[in-house]
Amino acid sequence: MKRAIQTTFLVVGMMLLGGCDYGSEVPLGAVNEASIDEQLVGMWTCVRRTPKEVMSGETLFLQFNDREYYLQMSGETRILSEPDKEQFYLTSFRRAYSTEIFGTTFLNVQNITVSGKRRYVFYSYSMPSPDKLIIQFVDMNLFPQDLSTIEEARRIVQEKINNPDLYEDDAMKCQRVQEN
Description:
The chain is α+β, with helices and mostly antiparallel strands. It has two helices and eight strands. The protein has a single domain, classed as Beta Barrel (Lipocalin).
């Protein structure tokens, strides 16, 4: 089970931030304006279901410094139309920091890689209770490849902040892993 979870997040991580041109060249805000949400720090077991696949795994948020998180996502992806096919297992390592726009906190997330472009993807999150976390993935197709300033990126989010089209369809739902 643990291996399956790790595969999902690795596949998702590679799709989102791997050496492809997916993502934004610029963040939604400057790192020197970021803050740490202590409630986010810790280990989470997460699941994301789409019509085609189920991704499950563990997500670890650690405070890296006064403004940034170290984020590790490990998991697996199971393709629902191919139940007998081997599952994908991945682990990704990321840097993240927060930006607030109109009362919503977004995470600016970058893969930590040896090579390739380190584009940003954006997540928003909410915590309905201290042990529950919901991560929504911003639809990065909304951001043109020639985007060059933080102001342009923020304007796109501001214009769609109350529109569900800002996000991909399926949120990731997480449960805090209790420390021993």
